[in-house]
Specification:
The chain has about 475 residues and is mainly beta. About 15% of the residues lie in helices and about 45% in strands. α4 packs parallel to α5.
């Protein structure tokens, strides 16, 4: 595993389109001793995670050894192997842009593509324990190097990229289920989930390297950029500044308590040491705590879910107000990096989904954070509301097809407005100045089921006031997505 992660050392790739990756230590041909040294460094960096997996597996094996397996459990597969491939090609028209800065979206007509291939390997560990590894190969860039809109148009585009394929390990985690009470229920095998039997009331523990949104802020109708909507502020709660590296993953641990029609989730995650950077080592010096309560219900015989999430981030972060004040005192452009100190940012998110019929459902998200501190990991957004409807193709004789239409209305706090108006730069946005207006997105997609494994999707987005700037745009985005699961 570690050897495959080093092949990018020999590449002359680029990061954010114009600089070499941080992993490249030299130009020209790679030397054997340098590769060995790099492998050693990777092993040392991943050692705490390996030890954590070993500990979890040991506990699971110890508990499993004390209980006999039933005939049902013997029939369950102990391995799970899946693959997925996703290719997204997006294009936007040229648009009005009287000025621009480093974080602006290119106003000329532009086309970019991203691709990723993932192998998902799972192994049952003891009784009700699972270990999953997701090695992946990525390639490509988001439009304008994933800059220029807070609600960026592609959830398959990361904040970094390379022209050549490069390997990653986005997920490596252990999950343990503890049965409590209630009737037995069957859990079907799926991606990153082995088939099992568990009681209706249970505890689920997860630890390792994964995405916060694997556990939190899920929604049946809008959450997966590989199969439904693409826009960041539609597939996730826009103001939920969750812990993540530049690819959207981090180290953490969670607990889920399922009791009747209720679920409570809690999580503790590692944040990067610098906003929007890599998560390195294994520590909680910079951390995020997340809690979510879920209520499942039925409305006129149709299932629905109501979720309320709260998060608290603790890290070295800058205040928009302090940055503007310093800029006024020095006559310089405000920069939150110059006023960072250990501080806290809090936020909440409401997430609702409701089935309307057997083949249609609606969703709604409303989120908000303090708006006083710089965005740390996700995107530059203080408040957001999004929603939409998704319909299966039963009504027109294509039962495996899916169509959705959604919207997002994204906003900044008064402190953030002052910062960006004065020329400040954020994670994704910064036009050098701003004529503020809420950023609004409308998205439509249609997913064709080509056969058992392959889907082809068309995507259309229209964005008004990109990066909250009335002086730029509007922008129209066209997308083509090819996705396979095997």
């Amino acid at each position: 595993m570690f050897m495959t992660m080093t092949h990018s050392l020999c590449k002359n790739g680029v990061l954010n389109g114009d600089i070499r990756p941080a992993l490249v230590f030299f130009q020209g041909e790679c030397q054997v001793n340098s590769i060995i040294e790099r492998v050693d460094m990777l092993i040392i960096k991943k050692l705490p995670i390996i030890l954590l997996f070993t500990l979890c597996a040991g506990v699971s094996l110890a508990s499993g050894a004390q209980e006999s397996r039933t005939s049902t459990e013997d029939a369950e597969k102990d391995w799970g192997v899946y693959t997925q491939l996703t290719y997204v090609n997006q294009w936007h028209n040229s648009f009005r842009a009287p000025y621009a800065a480093d974080n602006s979206m290119d106003s000329a007509s532009r086309n970019n593509q991203t691709a990723d291939i993932t192998l998902m390997i799972g192994r049952r560990i003891g009784r009700q324990g699972e270990l999953w590894l997701n090695p992946e190969i990525d390639q490509g860039f988001g439009l304008s190097n994933t800059l220029g809109m807070a609600g960026f148009p592609s959830g398959e585009a990361y904040k970094v990229g390379q022209n050549r394929p490069y390997p990653r390990l986005p997920r490596a985690f252990f999950r343990q289920t503890v049965n409590l009470s209630g009737e037995n229920e069957q859990v079907e095998a799926a991606v990153n989930q082995l088939s099992s039997t568990r009681t209706a009331n249970n505890l689920i523990f997860t630890a390792g390297h994964f995405s916060v949104t694997d556990i939190f802020d899920n929604n049946t109708y809008a959450h997966d950029p590989r199969s439904d909507f693409l826009n960041w502020s539609i597939i996730d709660a826009g103001s939920f500044d969750y812990a993540a590296d530049a690819w959207g993953f981090t180290n953490g641990m969670t607990i889920e308590w399922n009791q009747g029609s209720w679920t409570w989730r809690g999580g503790l995650f590692q944040m990067s040491e610098v906003p929007n950077a890599k998560v390195t080592g294994l520590h909680l010096n910079h951390r995020s705590m997340v809690s979510e309560i879920e209520k499942r219900y039925e409305l006129n015989g149709h299932p629905g879910k109501f979720k309320l999430l709260a998060f608290v981030n603790r890290a070295m972060m800058g205040s928009y107000q302090d940055a503007v004040l310093l800029g006024q005192q020095t006559g310089a452009v405000p920069d939150t990096a110059l006023v960072r100190k250990m501080d806290t940012n809090k936020g909440i998110a409401l997430n609702v989904e409701q089935e309307l019929s057997a083949d249609a459902g609606v969703f709604l998200r409303i989120s908000s954070n303090s708006g006083q501190k710089e965005a740390y990991e996700f995107t530059d957004m203080s408040k957001s509301i999004s929603g939409g409807v998704v319909v299966q193709g039963n009504r027109w004789g294509r039962s495996d097809d899916k169509m959705g239409i959604g919207f997002a209305h994204n906003m900044l706090s008064s402190d953030a407005k002052a910062y960006f108006t004065a020329g400040g730069m954020g994670i994704l946005i910064g036009d050098g100045k701003m004529n503020y207006g809420a950023e609004s997105v409308l998205e439509w997609f249609y997913s064709f089921q080509l056969n058992k494994n392959w889907k082809l999707s068309l995507d259309y987005q229209h964005a008004a006031n990109p990066a909250y700037n009335r002086d730029r745009g509007p922008i129209t985005f066209y997308g083509l997505r090819l996705h396979a699961e095997m």
